[in-house]
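User: quick one, sequence for these tokens?
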């Protein structure tokens, strides 16, 4: 019988928690029909979840952020301390709304005090610091692993870049050698073309000399032949039988 008041308190808190869901559903329906009225100055604004570093708005980056978020959540789940603390309190809130309001916090806090009589504001904040520390450790380990991959990738890049630089330098040397050979060949070609263009002048005098000798030979032959013909004709004319 001594447990009966405690059971009644838990039962009443559960009814209040269920009421939060009902209020949320009704509020969503009303928001679809009419614009939301200005917030009352006495009502604190909803608590927004921690922001995440902005990444390029692409499908792949969104998936990667979700994957990391789930990985960090799993790490915190594995680090969950025995009993009811900030972890259970935050799960209780986030199951009701991604942006819990004052009503959510009051209802969840009422239930938290029933589940853990030692629960108060300072207890929850101290407990939150533990999970923030664990999250920071997981974050630093993840970043460190990423930095190690970057270092290894940079080393791989440097090796490949050095190899490519050597290959490019080698090709440049070969090109320089080929250019020099082409230059030498072009010089020889120019010299040969000059010689070719002057080939007629080189042989003109020789051709003239030979032609003159041929003409002289003809003249000499005709002179001798003329003498023979002269004598031959004289014999025919003056030496008759």
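Assistant:
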């Amino acid at each position: 019988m001594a447990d009966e008041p405690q059971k009644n308190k838990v039962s009443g808190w559960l009814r209040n928690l269920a009421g939060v869901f009902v209020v949320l559903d009704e509020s969503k329906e009303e928001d679809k029909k009419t614009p939301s009225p200005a917030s009352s100055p006495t009502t604190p604004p909803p608590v927004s979840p921690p922001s995440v570093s902005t990444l390029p708005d692409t499908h792949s980056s969104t998936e990667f952020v979700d994957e990391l978020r789930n990985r960090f959540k799993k790490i915190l789940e594995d680090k969950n301390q025995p009993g009811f603390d900030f972890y259970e309190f935050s799960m209780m809130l986030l199951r009701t709304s991604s942006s819990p309001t004052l009503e959510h916090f009051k209802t969840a806090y009422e239930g938290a005090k029933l589940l853990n009589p030692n629960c108060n504001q300072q207890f929850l904040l101290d407990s939150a610091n533990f999970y923030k520390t664990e999250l920071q450790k997981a974050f630093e380990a993840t970043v460190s692993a990423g930095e190690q991959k970057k270092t290894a990738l940079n080393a791989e890049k440097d090796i490949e870049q050095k190899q490519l630089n050597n290959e490019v330098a080698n090709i440049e040397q070969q090109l320089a050698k080929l250019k020099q050979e082409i230059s030498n060949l072009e010089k020889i070609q120019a010299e040969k073309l000059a010689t070719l263009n002057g080939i007629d002048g080189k042989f003109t005098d020789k051709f003239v000399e030979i032609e003159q000798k041929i003409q002289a030979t003809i003249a000499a032959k005709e002179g001798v032949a003329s003498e023979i013909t002269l004598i031959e004709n004289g014999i025919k004319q003056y030496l008759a039988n």
